[in-house]
Structure formats: C-alpha cells, structure tokens
Amino acid sequence: MKTFIQEELAATYEEAIAQLQLELDQVIMRNLAVPLQPGGWWHQYVCPEHHTELLFDPLQADADVFHCTHGCVLSGEPYRGAWLVFKHQAMARYALQAAAIYASTRNPKYGNWGRQLIVQYAKQFPIYPIHPDAKPWMLKGRAFHQALTEAIWATTLIRAYLNLSDHGVSFAQDSAVIVPFLRMLGSSMEQYHYILTVERGEVENNYTAWLNAALCCVYAAEQNKDSLEKLVYGPGGLHEHLSCAIRGDGFEFEGSVYYHLFVLRAYMIAAEMLGRFGVDGYFLQGKDGQSLEKMLHVLVLLADEKGQLPAFHDGPYERLPYTREIVEVLEIGYAHFGQSSYLPLLKAAYESAAAAGRAAGLEEQYGNPALLEAVLYGCSERPSKHQMSKMISWKLEEIGFARLQHPDNPLACLLDFGPHGGNHGHFDKLNLMLYDGRFAVSPDPGTVPYGSELKKNWYPHTVSHNTVTVGGQSQKPSAARCTYFAASSDQQPENGKASISLEASEAYEGARLRRHVLLTEDWVIDWYNVALSNNNIIDWTFHFCGQVAGLSDSWQPISAELTLGESDGYNYVKAVHSYSEQKYDFTSSSKTASTVIEYASDLDPEQLSSLSVTLLLPAEARLLHITSPGLAVDPSAAMNGFLARCLDDQADFVAVYRSGSKPCTIELAKDNRTLVVGDENKSMQYVCTVEGIKELTK
After folding, report:
1. What pLDDT digit, counting tens, does each position of 389-438 carry?
2. What are the DSSP calls for 207-261, one per residue?
3. The pTM of the whole model exceeds 0.70
4. Which residues contact 568 (CB under 8 A, 6 or more apart)?
C-alpha cells in the first residue's frame, strides 16, 4: 500500500523530509532572523492596478520593493507593513518546519535553530508596541495590526515550541524569556477575548475561534489544564462558539467557504491542544449537533468534480496559504474520522499547492509547498486509489445553498439563497452558478484581498452575481427561502428531474423575486420572475468564463460609452455589444435570443467546449454583451457576460442552458406560464407555478 506522501505527492516520507531540510538549510545559511518591526495588515499586500496579491519570497531576508505578477513595481507603505506580516508568518512556519525535521532526523542543528528562533520572538514580542496604525474596528495586536493575525501566528509558534519539547529539545535555560512571553501572550489574548465576547457581545465572530485556539496553545505550553478545560465550556469558549457560529447543517454562519475553513482550522488546533490532556476535542458537539465532522462533510458536498471548493461570499479561490490550510484541515480530518470522501479534495489541494510552487519557482528545488502539512498531519493508512463521491443534488436549508445534478446531464447548478452572512456576506440572493462537468462556466467571483478597492466596490454587489438587480442598487442584506425542492439522494427524483424554487421578498422594498430552476437530462431551465410595487429598472445578469462564439452579426458593437450605472458596482461594467436579432412573440409580449459560449475545459484544453444559451426576455428588454472584472484569482482578466434590462413593474427572464453548440427553441404560451422547449428531435412543455417548474407532456 502506498503511503500518503507517495499517493498525493509522488514522494516518500524520507524524500519529503529531505526537501524540507533543503529549504530550511537555505534559511539557516542566509541567517534569516526575526524582523524587528511589527507587521501591518496583510490584505494591503495587493496591486492597486491589477488587484492581485503581490509576490512574496519567504527566503528573502528583507524587502522594500514589491512586485505584481503583471510587472508592477511598488514600494513604501502599506506594502512594507503587509510584507512584514508574510515574513513573520513565514518565520513561525520555519520554526515548525525545524521541529518536524528534528523529530525525524534528530539532527541537533535543526532543534537548536528552531529553539533559537522561538527565543528570539519571545524576547522581541514585549518590545513590539500596541500597534499604533491599527484600524479602529480591529482588536489591536503587538506583532501585527490585528490581534486575529497575532493569534494565528502564535498558534504556529507554540506548536513549534511544543513539538520541539516533545522530542527532547530543552527550553529550561530559556525559561526567563519563555515564561514571561507565554504569560504576556496569554494575558493579551484573554483581554481580547473579553472585549470581543463580553463588551462587544460578538461571540460568533470568527476572531473568537482563533482567540480560543491561541489560548488553548498558551495553556498547553504552560501545562495549565484547568484553564484549558474551562475554555471548552466557559463563556465564549469552544462549545458556545460552535453552538452559535456554526449552523445546524454544519456551515459557518457567514456563508463563506474560506471562513468556514478558517474557523474549522482553529477548532482543530484547539482540539490538538486538548488532546495533550486526554480530552478528545475532535468529537466536541454544539447544542444543535454541530461538529467538526459535520463541517468537513459540508466541504465534500460543496466540492466540484475536480475536488475544488467554490468561493461563496468573501474568500479567495487560490492562495498558497489558503491551500495549505485546506491541506491541514483535510489531513487532520482524515486522520481522525477516516472518511475517504475527503481524499479527492485533498488531492486537489496538493495539486493547487504544486501549481503555486511552480509559479513561484520553488517546487523544483524544494518540492510541493504543502510538504510540511503532509509530514506533520498526514496519515499513511489510506486507500491507494480514491475517487470523487458521486455528485448528487442536495440542499442545506439553514445556510441556504443548494446543488442540482442529473446523472445524464453534464451541467450542474449551485444556488445561494441563505442569510446575508454579516460583514463577509454578499448581496447575492438567488445567485445561480453553472458548471459543465469539471469546468466552472459561471462560478461565484470570489473576493480579492481587502486592501483592493474592488473588495467593497465590485465583488459584494448584486450586479457582479448571476441574479437580478432593481433600480441599479444592490440588494439589502437579507435572506431568501426555498419554497420547493425535488431531488433524491440516489439521483432518482420524480421523472429523473432535479428542481428548486426560491423566493426573496426582502431584498428590495416592495419587490418579490422568484427563481425556479429545473435540471433535466437535456437542459437547465432557469425561470426568474420579478414583481415590483412600481415601475423600475430591472437588470438580469449572467457572467461566464469564456467567449461568445463567433460574435455573429446579431451582436452590434456599441460605439459610444454606454453608462449602465455609477454606483453599486455598475461603474465596473462595460457594455460591448447589443443583441439586435430578436424574434418577437406578440401574443406573449416576449422575445428570444440564442447564442453559444465557448471555453477551454481542462479535460481537453486543445478543444473548445460549448454551452448554448437561449433566452426568452420581456419584449421591451435590451440584451447586452458586457465585460466586468474577472474572478478574484485575477480581476484584470475580464469576464464576459449578458445583461438584460427592462423598465417595468413585472418581468420574466427565462434562460435555457444546454451542453454543446446546438441551441434549443423556447416559446411562451399565451398564459405566460407554460413554456415549450425543444429542438428538431424533442419538444417538451413545462408549466411554472409558485412551487416551481413542472413537466406537462413529452
């Protein structure tokens, strides 16, 4: 049987240790030391022009010039302070790496270096001031702007300290430095915890999870079992946070995959510390049955056919630190719960880390950038082969996500209808995301680092998602509800279909938004109904990764700048073409338009895949081909999209998606509720009611 290193990383455990040792030798040779200045806010490490994270080399001793992947060169603040955050985190990680290497080789060179680095930080920490540049909403740290960043850094450093101690490295001669450091760190974390959970009453905040994790590490290092056990069930402790921050279906309340993993990782670190005192924290449950295993299962449901996770609400797609966190969480999760369904996600995360390593020029010399997580947390007892679980339809009622899947259709849908998600939520109720097999045709755009202007000005707004905007203004923070869902776990719903109906009545004053989606073996039927109390501008949008095939004569270039709006993201939307060849059906006051989208799928990059799109729109609607900022991976790589605009108090937008380049035909009957969808081989009738879309005849 292959070990986990061989299966996922094509390397033996010994080879992985050798690669980690090679990298750390470079750190030691370059005499990298603890920075004397505190770090700033890492979210400001972003190019102001391209909105991508700046490049960071962990082996660089110091830096005052910073580079963008597109060639921009920046200097000064806030980039310097943000770079220092990355540097402090890298040094703490190197201390943990030294501990892992020492545990495997017993070479005192690495044990001594790791000990010296921890002692350096213990000496330096009291010298860092309470950060004068922290923003008012932040809990101010010492080594960083935020106490949150300080808590994350502290858990890494203390894990290194404990790991070294476990394997015989003595800190006895350093007690005059280590003991005050731990006491000072613990005291500040307790103070932050009190401010956040008692004074501010924000127990559910993701900060709380990390303050708990940091305190668990401090108490474990101090061998303070009483304080650690009190933190489990005490005010704002692990049990209370799990009970109020995680919904009953196992998802973190902010509705962000990134913050869900962020909090889950903190829980796992806390559980690791509890295990040192014989307490199994991995099986801790909240008052409604919330658990770490349930939080892991949600990730399995959300993953696409490649094992990659979506980026709902605030959160990135691809960041090396984020990828390492995914690896850590899944490796620990597999070690404790043994679910093989985690392994395809783990494989995808290792592949993402390898790609990041190649892009940074690090992988060839130092191996996969997630090797340390593999060595520290990986479990060797696992199947030599594993596959993605069968993709099925599902609904998470409390957090408000759903997936529609049909065994005979390569297309699949994700929908978002849940609570807003607080400070990390987006104004995206009834957002639909479309997948074609392993390719995300129209995913959620994700979010860039918070220092980018696009963080507030584009990505959270309604017009950046596949839903409806009213009056050129983003939706209000609100939740929608699911009024109908038909699909079974064995993929045999009624007539083999998967269907959902959603309703949002609080997104806009005097507005009711309804979205009905039906997935059959042939197509995806998406019927969006809007009812307003007064006439207003109604915009239906669909953003996609790919190109409009051929740009036929039906698409007329827009010669003059067309302003669609000046706020709530509209200033980032550019109208490129207007669709002119539209067929009018005067009996139903509607018109149709058909086009084809082409994109490069990873299944066959040399051959373009196609998606046909047929739209039925209000007769007075104008259909535009638009461009807008790209996915958060690289906003400068613009996305294409369609925007249909009309002025009315009621409107129906129907889209039928079909894999391939062969469009279907759609007609709306006189009753405005019966839809006929077909081609030369097949014709089907569907009726739309408040409950959803129902098939009438074959």
Report:
1. 788 999 999 999 999 999 899 999 999 999 999 999 999 999 999 999 88
2. HHHHHHHHHHHHHHHTT-HHHHHHHHHSTTSHHHHHHHHB-TTS-BTT--HHHHH
3. yes
4. 461, 462, 463, 469, 472, 473, 474
